[in-house]
Every structure is written in structure tokens, then in C-alpha cells.
Write a structure and sequence with these properties.
By secondary structure, this protein is of the alpha+beta class. It has a single domain, classed as Lipoprotein localisation LolA/LolB/LppX (outer membrane lipoprotein receptor (LolB), chain A, Clam). About 30% of the residues lie in helices and about 35% in strands. A hairpin with a 7-residue loop joins strand 1 and strand 2.
Length: about 260
């Protein structure tokens, strides 16, 4: 009897430890998802599509902005990122740069010198931490599960191509224009997307329809805002921008690969 109780206690402790580790892993991954969500939104926004909008779509400021995206082949800008957390009295800010090339390549980095670099490559996203000499590979396939699957669903769907498509996937909560900048507040209609990001704000200039800012609100009340400045439309970008070389002393891991 004593032996049986002892074995049960050991089993319970092991199960409790396993659950704690799994919960910690889930929380760490959730934090990464929140950090990368702005990158995914940026990529989805710039995914280039063919064709033009109908006249009825371009009758509105929002429709005209959607139509203007067809002119984007490459794009670069400086970015100021602001993270507001309930646990902090002051928001966290970081500066960086972003480059995009149609149809789906991007290079996003924060910090000077860069502390975090994210590069979209064929079939994967490479996240590099230069200071730690570490790189992480994340698959961009539909064969994943959990939060990563939900995030990929947002990524693969891309940003809506027309106002009617936008309204089929988002509820337009509010639209305002201030100092020649139009801001649209959206709510995802998809429950899984809404659990990740209840609100999305996009701001663009009304004169040239250039992207000025994106802001994401997460389920815990925190926000992540990116303000884009000194943007350049259709610059010439080298292929090496999207194929960074890693030094031999970098450790490359695949966090989502089954163990």
C-alpha cells in the first residue's frame, strides 16, 4: 500500500511538472506571437495582388487606399515601435528598419545595432538574435497547430483586396481623419483571430495613401504600435537583403520541430 501511494505521488509530481513546463512554453510562445504579430500584419498588408478595384470601391477613402497598394513592388521605411503593457507605467519604444519586395519577401529589424531580425524566406521565417548568436526557424506551412496555426491563417489570408472583402473579414469599428491621416479601426470577424487581436488600427496618408502606422490590441489589453517614417516607394533592393548570412558560431534551432 505504501509503495502504491509513493508511486502515485511520484506520478502526480511528474504530471504537475510536465503541465507547468507546457504552460511556461505556451506563455513564452504567446509572448513571441504578440511580438511578431506586427510583422505578420505588415506582410499581409503588403502582399501584392493583381487587378484593380471597382469604381464603387474607390468611391471611399478606404477603397482608394486599398487600390493604391497595387503600385507597390518594393518598399522600405524606418519604424518606431511602441509597446504598452499594463504592468509598466511607461511604454517601451524601439527603432528599426523594414524592407519589402513583392510578392512576399520582407526583412524587419529592431534596434541599433539590430537586436532582433526577422526575414521571410521560402517556406519559413528566420528570426535572428545577433547579440545571442542565435537563429530560430519557423515553418510557414499550414500543417501546424495552436496559436501558430491561427497566426499563419492570418498571414496566408493576406490583407483584404477590396472594401467588400475587408468588410467580410473585419468589422469596421471606426474611421477618423486628422491632419491628413486617415485611421481605420477593425475587429476580426474570425473568433480565433479575435482571441489573438481584438482590435487592429491602420493609419495612412490621404494625399498619397502611404502607410503611416499599424496598431494591434491584444486580448490582455496590451498594444503594439508601429509608426513608419521616411518611407521609400519601389527602391532597388539587393537579393542579399532577404538572405542574411549567419556566422559559423551561430546556433540555429527549430523551436516548433517535434522532439
Amino acid at each position: 500500500m505504501v509503495s502504491l501511494r509513493s508511486n502515485l505521488a511520484v506520478t502526480r509530481r511528474r504530471e504537475s511538472s510536465r503541465r507547468r513546463k507546457e504552460a511556461d512554453r505556451t506563455r513564452r510562445f504567446a509572448r513571441k506571437i504578440r511580438r511578431w504579430a506586427s510583422i505578420f500584419l505588415f506582410f499581409a498588408f503588403f502582399s501584392v495582388f493583381s487587378g484593380r478595384l471597382s469604381a464603387s470601391d474607390t468611391d471611399s477613402i478606404l477603397g482608394a487606399w486599398l487600390n493604391a497598394r497595387t503600385n507597390i513592388h518594393t518598399w522600405s521605411a524606418e519604424v518606431v515601435q511602441t509597446r504598452a503593457l499594463k504592468s509598466l507605467t511607461q511604454p517601451l519604444t524601439a527603432t528599426g528598419h523594414v524592407w519589402f519586395a513583392a510578392p512576399n519577401r520582407f526583412h524587419w529589424e529592431l534596434g541599433n545595432p539590430p537586436q532582433t531580425i526577422a526575414v521571410r524566406q521560402a517556406g519559413q521565417m528566420l528570426v535572428i538574435y545577433p547579440k545571442l548568436k542565435r537563429a530560430e526557424k519557423y515553418p510557414l506551412t499550414g500543417q501546424q497547430t495552436g496559436q501558430w496555426r491561427d497566426t499563419l491563417a492570418l498571414l496566408e489570408a493576406g490583407f483584404p483586396r477590396s472594401q467588400s472583402e475587408l468588410e467580410s473579414r473585419f468589422r469596421v469599428i471606426a474611421q477618423t481623419t486628422t491632419n491628413n491621416v486617415h485611421e481605420v479601426t477593425l475587429q476580426p470577424r474570425s473568433p480565433s483571430a479575435r482571441r489573438l487581436m481584438p482590435r487592429i488600427k491602420i493609419a495612412f496618408a490621404t494625399n498619397d495613401f502611404s502607410l503611416r502606422a499599424t496598431e494591434l490590441q491584444f486580448a490582455d489589453g496590451s498594444t503594439l504600435r508601429n509608426d513608419f517614417i521616411n518611407a521609400v516607394l519601389n527602391p532597388k533592393l539587393a537579393d542579399s537583403t532577404f538572405a542574411p548570412e549567419l556566422a559559423s558560431d551561430f546556433k540555429v534551432v527549430e523551436p516548433l520541430k517535434p522532439k
